[in-house]
């Protein structure tokens, strides 16, 4: 579910932070820059794990800030293929079931990956598994919003959200502009025994 | 910014939980953290509701030692630690081709190992584990 990613960066420390320890200032800058952001083809950044090396700092003409080359490791959310995860149903639509982990919302289970046969109930706005009871009749199992759900990760898709390459925008207006595009989507499946709402497999 | 190694190690949920808890306790005065506070809070809320909240490094190591003879892959063991299975069905999901690789006794053994090292997972499905232990 979580991985460690090694990264390198030149971090700029403004003079107002010269009073605190360089390590702390850099750690705070890196977290400001990366926490809760998706890095293309890497995953959702959670928090700084550690700084592995600091090289000498530079000052450039015309800028009072120090620039330091830093190597660090970051905790990143990126589940591997086939990983079994536990989430909650956020909403349902004709496109499938949207699942949230609390800190990550862009998980979708498309209709073809639901238990078979399933149908979408327009009035309830929920997917229903038409469970075959074996004696010819069907038992409707609703997938209501908020229910805990176990699913398998089948695919992931990264999307570039800003024109300027992999660099993650830090300015608030840049984030707003890119918000209608989802940078990282995980596709899940529940079409195997044991997957789906936890209550289905309780007994 | 440059990515050197986009997957240098897998982390267990427990490790992430501990790291985030330390982070949260350590930097209350820092007002410049921006999104860090949000993501830390949300991730902690998720992890605190998973069984890893009651794990300790000792129980995890002991459990991994006990699982050694089953020839499981790293990812499979990670999943067992992150969400300890309580039923044979869950093991079937986590372990690829479990029917061929594991006998029924072995599956029951894994379940016993999990309960032994992480007794707290039992509470959720008490009845089931009782019958298994009998």
UniProtKB/TrEMBL annotation, chain A:
Keywords associated with the record: Antiviral defense, DNA-directed RNA polymerase, Immunity, Innate immunity, Nucleus, Transcription
Domain of life, source organism: Eukaryota
One Pfam family matching this protein: RNA_pol_Rbc25
Subcellular location field: Nucleus
Domain RNA polymerase Rpb7-like N-terminal: 12-64
Keyword tRNA-binding appears in the UniProt entry: no
Chief place of localization: nucleus
GO cellular component terms, semicolon-separated: RNA polymerase III complex
GO BP term, example: transcription initiation at RNA polymerase III promoter
Key word Nucleus present: yes
Domain RNA polymerase III subunit Rpc25: 83-201
Assembly and interaction partners: Component of the RNA polymerase III complex consisting of 17 subunits: a ten-subunit horseshoe-shaped catalytic core composed of POLR3A/RPC1, POLR3B/RPC2, POLR1C/RPAC1, POLR1D/RPAC2, POLR3K/RPC10, POLR2E/RPABC1, POLR2F/RPABC2, POLR2H/RPABC3, POLR2K/RPABC4 and POLR2L/RPABC5; a mobile stalk composed of two subunits POLR3H/RPC8 and CRCP/RPC9, protruding from the core and functioning primarily in transcription initiation; and additional subunits homologous to general transcription factors of the RNA polymerase II machinery, POLR3C/RPC3-POLR3F/RPC6-POLR3G/RPC7 heterotrimer required for transcription initiation and POLR3D/RPC4-POLR3E/RPC5 heterodimer involved in both transcription initiation and termination.
Function, in words: DNA-dependent RNA polymerase catalyzes the transcription of DNA into RNA using the four ribonucleoside triphosphates as substrates. Specific peripheric component of RNA polymerase III (Pol III) which synthesizes small non-coding RNAs including 5S rRNA, snRNAs, tRNAs and miRNAs from at least 500 distinct genomic loci. With CRCP/RPC9 forms a mobile stalk that protrudes from Pol III core and functions primarily in transcription initiation. Pol III plays a key role in sensing and limiting infection by intracellular bacteria and DNA viruses.
Similarity comment text for this entry: Belongs to the eukaryotic RPB7/RPC8 RNA polymerase subunit family.
Protein name: DNA-directed RNA polymerase III subunit RPC8
Species the sequence originates in: Photinus pyralis (Common eastern firefly)
TrEMBL record, chain B:
Main localization (coarse): membrane
Location(s) in or outside the cell: Cell membrane; Nucleus
InterPro entries: HRDC-like_sf (IPR010997), RNA_pol_Rpb4/RPC9_core (IPR006590), Rpb4/RPC9 (IPR005574), Rpb4/RPC9_sf (IPR038324), RPC9 (IPR038846)
UniProt KW Amino-acid biosynthesis keyword: no
UniProt xrefs under Gene3D superfamilies: 1.20.1250.40
Pfam families xref list: RNA_pol_Rpb4
SUPFAM superfamilies associated with the record: HRDC-like (SSF47819)
Membrane topology: Peripheral membrane protein
Record keywords, A-Z: Cell membrane, DNA-directed RNA polymerase, Membrane, Nucleus, Transcription
GO CC term, one of those recorded: RNA polymerase III complex
RNA polymerase Rpb4/RPC9 core domain residues: 1-119
Claim: Nucleus is one of the keywords in the record: yes
GO BP terms: transcription initiation at RNA polymerase III promoter
GO molecular function, one term: nucleotide binding
Domain of life: Eukaryota
Family, similarity comment: Belongs to the eukaryotic RPC9 RNA polymerase subunit family.
Main function: DNA-dependent RNA polymerase catalyzes the transcription of DNA into RNA using the four ribonucleoside triphosphates as substrates. Specific peripheric component of RNA polymerase III (Pol III) which synthesizes small non-coding RNAs including 5S rRNA, snRNAs, tRNAs and miRNAs from at least 500 distinct genomic loci. With POLR3H/RPC8 forms a mobile stalk that protrudes from Pol III core and functions primarily in transcription initiation. Pol III plays a key role in sensing and limiting infection by intracellular bacteria and DNA viruses.
Oligomer and partners: Component of the RNA polymerase III complex consisting of 17 subunits: a ten-subunit horseshoe-shaped catalytic core composed of POLR3A/RPC1, POLR3B/RPC2, POLR1C/RPAC1, POLR1D/RPAC2, POLR3K/RPC10, POLR2E/RPABC1, POLR2F/RPABC2, POLR2H/RPABC3, POLR2K/RPABC4 and POLR2L/RPABC5; a mobile stalk composed of two subunits POLR3H/RPC8 and CRCP/RPC9, protruding from the core and functioning primarily in transcription initiation; and additional subunits homologous to general transcription factors of the RNA polymerase II machinery, POLR3C/RPC3-POLR3F/RPC6-POLR3G/RPC7 heterotrimer required for transcription initiation and POLR3D/RPC4-POLR3E/RPC5 heterodimer involved in both transcription initiation and termination.
Protein's name in the database: DNA-directed RNA polymerase III subunit RPC9
Organism listed in the record: Photinus pyralis
């Amino acid at each position: 579910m979580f991985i460690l990613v090694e990264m390198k960066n030149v971090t700029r420390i403004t003079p107002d932070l010269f009073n605190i320890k360089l390590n702390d200032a850099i750690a705070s800058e890196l977290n400001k820059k990366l926490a809760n952001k998706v890095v293309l083809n890497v995953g959702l950044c959670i928090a700084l794990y550690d700084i592995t090396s600091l090289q000498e700092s530079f000052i450039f003409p015309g800028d009072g800030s120090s620039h330091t080359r830093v190597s660090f490791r970051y905790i990143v959310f990126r589940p591997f293929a086939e990983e079994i995860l536990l989430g909650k149903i956020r909403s349902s639509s004709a496109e499938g079931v949207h699942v949230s982990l609390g800190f990550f919302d862009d998980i979708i289970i498309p209709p073809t990956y639901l238990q078979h046969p399933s149908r979408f109930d327009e009035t309830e706005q929920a997917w229903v598994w038409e469970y075959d009871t074996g004696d010819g009749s069907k038992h409707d199992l609703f997938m209501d919003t908020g229910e805990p759900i176990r699913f398998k990760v089948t695919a992931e898709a990264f999307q570039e959200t800003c024109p300027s390459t992999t660099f993650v925008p830090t300015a608030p207006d840049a984030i707003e502009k890119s918000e209608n595009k989802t940078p990282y989507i995980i596709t899940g499946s529940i079409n195997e025994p044991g997957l789906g709402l936890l209550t289905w497999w309780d007994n | 910014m440059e990515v050197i190694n986009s997957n240098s190690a897998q982390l267990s949920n427990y490790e992430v939980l501990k790291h985030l808890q330390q982070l949260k306790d350590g930097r209350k005065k820092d007002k410049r953290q921006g999104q860090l506070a949000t993501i830390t809070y949300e991730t902690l809320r998720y992890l605190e509701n998973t069984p890893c909240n009651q794990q300790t490094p000792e129980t995890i190591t002991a459990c991994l030692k006990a699982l050694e003879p089953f020839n499981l892959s790293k990812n499979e063991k990670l999943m067992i630690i992150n969400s300890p299975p309580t039923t044979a069905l869950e093991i079937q999901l986590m372990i690829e081709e479990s029917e061929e690789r594991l006998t029924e006794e072995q599956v029951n053994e894994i379940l016993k190992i999990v309960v032994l090292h992480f007794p707290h997972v039992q509470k959720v499905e008490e009845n089931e584990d009782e019958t298994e232990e009998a």
